[in-house]
């Protein structure tokens, strides 16, 4: 992947040994802890200002909430009902920005909200909210961006949708994404602007001087090597783990970790062209299902997460039943069962503890704190990561000693052209995922590489590209985050492992023993955390 002069193209991952050599070699303006969308946004916005930026992640990039979200880049319509106009306004505008700047990675998604007799919120209240929603998005046409479908039109738009009392639907527009790939694109832009990014590098402690944070103690999770780095300022962007690091400054806890779980079913089992959004018949919580990456995604729950944060979150049987009950209430002829579920996943959201008894009503706003030079940025939504990053950097600037100016400059470098003989769908997918690196990475692709893996929209070429160029250290990095095959295909895509291994082995440099250990590790991970509980997993 080297350029004509032998140098890596801007934004590419350098060899790990090169990145490690930089750690103690300089004083960083900013050290960012956390490789999810929040940390990636901070690193990119800081690097765009010319700051010397280091980002470290204790596991893999997007390992936590940022690969386990609902995959929606939405304006937060539900927050209007709660009177949170600011969050909705910011979200709508940032959604529109991402749709413009990351086409194909952030995609429009039509939402259909069933209008049922006697169900809250009422059609008129919902319609009023949508008028405000469209106005915030800059859509001031008299009809707006939404419309009401009568019963016949609703049944055409969503065949099989038949909850009790159905009399029509409201249809509106939002957006969706591949959350983990969005993180990788933002990190690519951060590196392009000079940032250094390292996965599997844990911040084991804060380095204090005269009671203020002056750097980090790091430990390489792969080799065990310890490093001390100096930094003028540190941003804690560790999401649900943020309170743990803050205790080093004597701060009080801020967060209420909430678990959100999702189900993935084959598209043929629940074929929907729209996102169907509705309130759960048991408790009135918002639930949705929509087409995603060739499957149908169902979510989400919202529960206090009381398990240890270092353990991988898992769905419970009660959550599986809750989501299936919601689908079967809306699609009574479907009779969806646990055996229909291809995969499930659970993530822990860093929600501010505002004292609300009902987890679903806890605020989704973000918070920024400066505690002895440790800037903590947590809470918030995926959609508004750019604005959140700017809030954190405004507090960091005095410690760094560099000016920080809020900017509306584009986040992403335009993608380079690809071979015009390839289909438009292939070109858009590769440009969406690799941006300005797409032409360089894909130059030698052949027709077999550009075929879809059966049952998904993923191209075979995405596997060796990740293995060679995207800091893959474990098999789950490859199958759960660089690609999403582990949640799109039955049994974590293990049936495709022979071809996956043949494609990726030349680039990973793993011995046979290493491969066998990785396969066993991945098999156990899929069995325990990505399959419904109490369901026999044949072949696992």
Structural class, from secondary structure content? alpha/beta
What distance separates the N and C termini?
A: 36 Å
Shape assignment: globular
Radius of gyration, in Å, reads 23 Å
In total, the number of strands is 17
Low-confidence stretches: 1-6
User: What is the fold-level CATH name, i.e. the topology of the largest domain?
Assistant: D-Amino Acid Oxidase, Chain A, domain 2
Instruction: Write the CATH homologous superfamily of the largest domain.
Output: D-Amino Acid Oxidase, subunit A, domain 2
Average residue-wise pLDDT: 91
Tell me the number of structural domains: 3
- Sheet with the most strands, sense and barrel status: 9 strands, mixed
Number of helices: 17
CATH architecture of the largest domain: 2-Layer Sandwich
| CATH class descriptor name of the largest domain | Alpha Beta
Structure description:
The strands form 2 sheets. Strands 3, 4, 5, 10, 11, 12, 13, 14 and 15 form a 9-stranded mixed sheet that branches. Strands 1, 2, 6, 7, 8, 9, 16 and 17 form an 8-stranded mixed sheet that branches. It is built from 17 helices and 17 strands. The two termini are 36 Å apart. By secondary structure, it is of the alpha/beta class. The N terminus is likely disordered.
Explain the layout of strands and helices:
Blueprint: H1 16-22, E1 28-33, H2 37-48, E2 53-56, H3 77-81, H4 85-101, E3 106-116, H5 123-136, E4 147-150, H6 151-157, E5 166-177, H7 179-192, E6 196-198, E7 201-209, E8 212-220, E9 226-236, H8 242-246, E10 255-266, E11 275-279, E12 286-292, E13 295-299, E14 303-304, H9 317-330, E15 343-352, E16 366-371, E17 374-379, H10 385-400, H11 424-434, H12 438-442, H13 462-469, H14 475-482, H15 485-488, H16 497-508, H17 512-529
Parallel strand pairs: 1-2, 1-9, 2-6, 3-11, 9-17
Antiparallel strand pairs: 3-5, 4-5, 7-8, 8-9, 10-13, 10-14, 10-15, 11-12, 12-13, 16-17
Helix pairs in contact: 2-7, 2-10, 13-16
């Amino acid at each position: 992947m080297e350029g004509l002069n032998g140098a890596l193209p801007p934004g590419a991952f350098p060899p790990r040994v090169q990145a490690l050599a930089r750690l103690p070699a300089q004083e960083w303006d900013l050290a960012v802890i956390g490789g999810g969308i929040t940390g990636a946004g901070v690193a990119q916005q800081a690097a765009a200002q010319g700051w010397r930026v280091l980002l470290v992640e204790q596991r893999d990039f997007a390992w936590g909430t940022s690969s386990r979200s609902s995959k929606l880049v939405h304006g937060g319509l539900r927050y209007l009902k709660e009177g949170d106009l600011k969050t909705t306004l910011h979200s709508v505008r940032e959604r529109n920005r991402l749709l413009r700047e990351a086409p194909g990675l952030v995609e429009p998604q039509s939402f259909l909200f069933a209008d049922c007799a006697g169900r809250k919120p009422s059609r008129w209240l919902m319609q009023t909210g949508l008028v405000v929603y469209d106005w915030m998005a800059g859509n001031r046409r008299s009809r707006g961006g939404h419309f009401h479908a009568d019963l016949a039109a609703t049944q055409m738009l969503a065949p099989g949708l038949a909850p009790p009392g159905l009399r029509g639907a409201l249809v509106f527009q939002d957006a969706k994404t591949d959350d983990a790939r969005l993180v990788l694109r933002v990190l690519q832009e951060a590196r392009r602007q000079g940032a250094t990014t390292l996965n599997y590098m844990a911040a084991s402690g804060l380095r204090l001087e005269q009671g203020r944070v002056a750097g980090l103690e790091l430990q390489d999770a792969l080799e065990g090597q310890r490093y001390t780095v100096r930094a003028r300022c540190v941003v804690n962007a560790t999401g649900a783990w943020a309170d743990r690091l803050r205790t080093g400054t004597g701060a009080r806890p801020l967060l209420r970790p909430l678990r959100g779980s999702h189900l993935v079913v084959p598209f043929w089992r629940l074929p929907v062209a729209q996102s169907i959004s509705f309130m759960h018949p048991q408790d009135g919580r918002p639930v949705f299902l929509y087409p995603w990456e060739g499957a149908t995604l169902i979510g989400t729950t919202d529960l206090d997460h009381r398990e240890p944060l270092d353990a991988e979150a898992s769905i419970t049987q009660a959550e599986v039943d809750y989501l299936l009950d919601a689908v079967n209430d809306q699609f009574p002829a479907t009779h969806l069962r646990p055996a229909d579920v291809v995969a499930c996943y659970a993530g822990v959201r860093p929600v501010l503890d505002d004292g609300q008894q009902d987890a679903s009503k806890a605020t989704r706003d973000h918070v920024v704190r400066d505690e002895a030079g440790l800037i903590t940025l947590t809470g918030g939504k995926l959609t508004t990561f750019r604005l959140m990053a700017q809030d954190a950097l405004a507090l960091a600037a005095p410690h760094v000693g560099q000016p920080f100016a809020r900017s509306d400059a584009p986040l992403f470098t335009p993608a380079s052209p690809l071979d015009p003989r390839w289909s438009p769908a292939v070109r858009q997918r590769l440009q969406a995922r690799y941006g300005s690196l797409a032409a360089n990475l894909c130059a030698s692709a052949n027709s077999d590489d550009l075929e879809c893996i059966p049952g998904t929209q993923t191209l075979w070429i995405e596997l060796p590209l990740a293995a060679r160029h995207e800091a893959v250290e474990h098999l789950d990095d490859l199958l759960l985050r660089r690609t999403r095959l582990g949640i799109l295909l039955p049994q974590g895509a293990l049936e495709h492992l022979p071809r996956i291994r043949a494609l990726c082995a030349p680039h990973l440099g793993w011995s046979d023993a290493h491969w066998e250990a990785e396969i066993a590790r991945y098999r156990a991970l899929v069995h325990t955390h990505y399959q419904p509980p109490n369901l026999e997993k044949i072949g696992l």
